[in-house]
Amino acid sequence: MMKNILLMGLLLLGVAACQSPKKEATFTEKDLTIIPKPLSVKMGEGYFVFNDETRFVVRDTTAFLLPLYLLAEELQLMSARPKKERAKRNYMELSLDKTLPAGGYILSSDRDKVLIKASDVEGIRNGLQTLRQLFPPEVEHKIRGREWVIPAVTIEDAPAHQWRGLMLDVARHFFPKEYILKTLDRMALLKLNVLHLHLVDNEGWRIEIKKYPKLTEVGAWRVDQEDKLWDERVPNDADAIAKGAKKYGGYYSQEDIEEMVKYASSRGITIVPEIEMPAHVMSAIAAYPELSCHKRPIGVPSGAVWPITDIYCAGQEETFEFIEGVLTEVMELFPSKYIHIGGDEATHTEWEHCPKCQQRMKEYHLKDIHQLQRYFINRVNDFLVSKGRTLVGWDEIVEKGLAKDAVVMNWRGIEVGKQALAQGNKLVLTSDCYINHYQGLPDYEPLANGGYLPLKQLYHYNLEKDKLSAQEQAGVLGVQANLWAEHVETTSHSEYMIFPRLLALSEIAWTDSKLKNWEDFMGRVERFMPRMDAMGINYSRSMYQVVPTVENKDGKVYLRLDCEVPTAEIRYALGGVPINKGQRYTAPIAIEGTTTYNAAVMQGNFSTTITTGEITFHKAMNKEVHYKVPYHKKYGGQGAGTLTNIVRGTKDFHDGQWLGWLGDDVEMTIDLGAATTVSEVRVGAMDAQSSGIYFPVKIVVEISADSKRYEEVAAKEVPCEIRGKASLKDFVLKFAAKESRYVRVKLKNVKTPPKGGDAWLFIDEILVL
Predict the structure, then answer these.
(1) Catalytic, out of 147, 157, 201, 664
(2) CATH code that applies to domain 545-615
(3) Residue 310 is among the residues annotated as catalytic for this protein
(4) Is 512 a catalytic residue?
(5) Is 280 a catalytic residue?
(6) Which of 133, 486, 527, 636 has a CB 3.0–4.6 Å from the CB of 230, allowing a cystine?
């Protein structure tokens, strides 16, 4: 028997994309734009019309009322109006069905009614979000008015993964509460259920802790260097702000946190707070220097810090008293089962020299600082477990002896993740979901962290199923996209980095991987764009950008032009011809000699930014190269011939067209095959200092007729300058024309970068002219 039956008539006040059709409308599955893709969709006949007489019936439990009211409020669709009797038609009913899986639902509609069944309130929420996507995009304008039509359909659906997350870094750049609330609404639409807030880092402490007021009085603020690129910002004195320097920052009050948590919970989303330790805490040490080993006052940094040596002292009890005090207030604010403590990227130099840390190691028979790190993490874990919570940390916490109840957030590749799974820890995958990376060609995109993650690549991420056994897969809680905010200074830029990639993330997190299809997904993304427009989302259109690839096959050169959108029409022109006079691209273009090219997607009134480039034929093309010092095995490009294949590398140093050397000087010799006149050598190099890649500091060119006696013909000194963004450059060395068969190029590595860290040297091409 049904019980606790609640009848509600809800007056629909929305603006319709269409009024009641005067003639029978027909719908196909291609008319639906549901993201993430449901398990099963079966089209019915006809449609259902929502109007001012539509009634809502909630059966079995009043818990279903809140999701219903929230959807009504979000879209400004309805106002409650009680009814005394149940309607025979023109109604929508929410009901309980305990046979359905957690979070799953069945939504069915016909001419008379709409039914949503679920075994829990999460399933009802998910079903309502699918219903929302059945409405036309105009509903998102939230303007009151007319009738809405949805197709007759039966949808059966359930989530593939438990953890479907997004991480926002609000420490590097602070985003206001209102933006967090807006993001929660958009996550709910896509059935995402975890918002991971990175609240603490070197550059800012973003949560009010009443026991330690200086964390926000001091730690939330840094000297304003927003006019400089992140990696070009200089260290700050501890007293710079006190002396009047302009400041940047902000934080969430405890009232803000409570509002965000309540807002998220009502939408089925858990906010997981991240309170970094023992590293990434210079903002805390700036507020309370006694937490460090050295006890010296420091300033909150305004930009990049590497290596991270200012960390909490692991040898003193005061540190753990502080951590437990902070986490106690955090747990009072966040009901989440999970508390993220970071645990990553600590350089333990201070621990090695700190008497208290050394005493701690002696007392607990810890052999090295890695075991001291494990002690630190496990001690915090024990505290959280004693309070009924579960520790989450980045995969640096994976050490033999890590408590099995801890959850590992995998970001450095699946091998570390497999180690965690073997120890019995659960895993959240994030390695290939860093949406702070470029989503289009870097030359046409806002500044981002190095790396390249276009929409298609993210969509095809299979959660490492080809590398994990069935047993290991059972230990994967789910997947999360991470948006680190070093270069993301505004909410508009944040939206641009998140969308539409969050659509892909939602589908790989929710949908059975067997149902994924790129062409189908991209069609739904295109149809979803008007909804994002109506919601005011500043989404990227980088998937329409033409991506050129030069192919060198069997001595022949071709230019291939690609676009992620399968239906896009690409047009191109060579040799300086304007793009509007170009031709339609249908197949790779044979290139016979040095030329330039322009290419763009051009359909009707729509066109993308024009992709431009140059293909340079030269005398070393396809010639043998011999290396005195072998290139690094991780960065071997296409092998020894990479530097003479005329295929140029991009700012993504993982693109397979770069050779890399770590800390080594480089010497290579090119055999031109026969004596020929040479007068110029160009060396293509990369500088991406946030990734430890630097231009060579000196280049020398030598030539020889017999490979025995070499003559130096050109040299160039290259000053090592601090640069805040990736740069590609051809270093040109010209000299008097001479006959030569062999060309030797020597490159001097910077070895000791001005900001410390790695000293990589990356080369993509040696051109001989």
Answers:
(1) 201
(2) 2.60.40.10
(3) no
(4) no
(5) yes
(6) 486
